[in-house]
């Protein structure tokens, strides 16, 4: 078995310490690792967030006279962007272009995603323009990242325009693309537009996931329509997208905020009976709902039972309870 294939095996199994030790042995024995060996280890280190070590190895390549290739750069750029180090990733893009290594769709998409995540939509769009200038075709992940960026900044017209232009470029939206735009509509209180998009997605043969449904539930709750929110929630099981704890929390919060505390309590009891992984967030939502509905005594009883349920109140829980007492004029409590 060659050193390279052994190293590759360690990296595929994420046995990082073994991979690093083997690489050290290769150097000690006087062998000169090639670009593939270096890139294999750099990719593994980036995937597991050992970015400083990966960058050290990248610099060592230079010292050893080994020229990095496109895969080396993409591994580092993706790793840096995933860890929020977009400025370091942008420097690497400049470096690779200086060396006349042409970035591909993976390079650009990683950077665009990183900039969008950092709230730097302008920079992401500049990269998109550069990508088009260089005749690199965007893929579904590129478009989804940009649509998500537009939606986050409330630029829905541009998000919709980009969404509609995808198909003309031979790129079809996936469930994440649809959900990003649905989230944008719901955030801007345009839930009906979100629902139109939801049905269009189903017509295209795409199955909505838990995040899609949770987004719509939150959207209806935001516009003061908890009944429709609950209807969407009730559809989930039969549509193959089981609600998770976040879905339940969103629905409970929506019901409580819209004066449907009794209904929220029924769902809360159901969650506890089913032995669901109820967190302090869930309890805080219910306590807050009870306080808002004037059931401060019941809220305090639930608050006092937290310790016996293995729950530790957080700052929000305490603040909620204190606010509840103050509203009722129970300052001493």
From TrEMBL:
Extent of the PPR repeats: 1-33, 34-68, 69-103, 104-138, 139-173, 174-208, 209-243, 244-278, 279-313
PROSITE patterns: PPR
InterPro entries: PPR_rpt, TPR-like_helical_dom_sf
Entry's family note: Belongs to the PPR family. P subfamily.
Name of protein: Putative pentatricopeptide repeat-containing protein, mitochondrial
Upper taxonomic lineage: Eukaryota, Viridiplantae, Streptophyta, Embryophyta, Tracheophyta
Keywords: Repeat
A Pfam family matched in the record: PPR_2
GO molecular function: mRNA binding
Native source organism of the sequence: Noccaea caerulescens
């Amino acid at each position: 078995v060659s050193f390279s294939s052994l190293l590759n095996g360690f990296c595929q199994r994420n046995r990082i310490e073994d991979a690093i030790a083997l690489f050290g042995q290769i150097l000690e024995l006087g062998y000169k690792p090639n670009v593939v060996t270096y890139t294999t280890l750099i990719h593994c280190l980036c995937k597991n967030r050992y970015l400083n070590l990966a960058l050290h190895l990248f610099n060592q390549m230079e010292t050893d006279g080994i020229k990095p290739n496109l895969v080396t750069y993409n591994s580092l750029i993706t790793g840096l962007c995933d860890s929020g180090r977009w400025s370091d990733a942008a420097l690497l893009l400049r470096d690779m272009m200086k060396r006349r290594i042409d970035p591909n769709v993976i390079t650009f998409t990683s950077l665009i995603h990183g900039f969008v995540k950092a709230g730097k939509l302008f920079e992401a769009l500049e990269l998109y323009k550069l990508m088009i200038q260089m005749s690199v075709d965007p893929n579904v992940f590129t478009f989804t990242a940009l649509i998500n960026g537009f939606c986050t900044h409330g630029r829905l017209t541009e998000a919709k325009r980009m969404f509609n232009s995808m198909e003309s470029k031979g790129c079809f939206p996936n469930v994440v693309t649809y959900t990003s735009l649905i989230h944008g509509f719901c955030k801007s209180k345009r839930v009906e537009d979100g629902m139109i998009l939801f049905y269009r997605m189903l017509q295209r043969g795409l199955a909505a996931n838990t995040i899609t449904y949770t987004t719509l539930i939150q959207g209806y709750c935001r516009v003061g329509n908890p009944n429709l929110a609950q209807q969407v929630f009730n559809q989930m099981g039969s549509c193959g997208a089981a609600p998770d704890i976040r879905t339940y929390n969103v629905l409970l919060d929506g019901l409580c905020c819209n004066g449907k505390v009794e209904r929220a309590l029924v769902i809360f009891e159901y969650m506890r009976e089913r032995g669901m992984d109820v967190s302090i967030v869930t309890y805080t939502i219910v306590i807050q709902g009870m306080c808002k509905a004037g059931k401060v005594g019941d809220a305090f009883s639930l608050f006092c039972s937290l310790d016996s349920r293995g729950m530790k109140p957080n700052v929000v829980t305490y603040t909620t309870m204190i606010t509840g007492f103050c509203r009722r004029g129970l300052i001493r409590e």
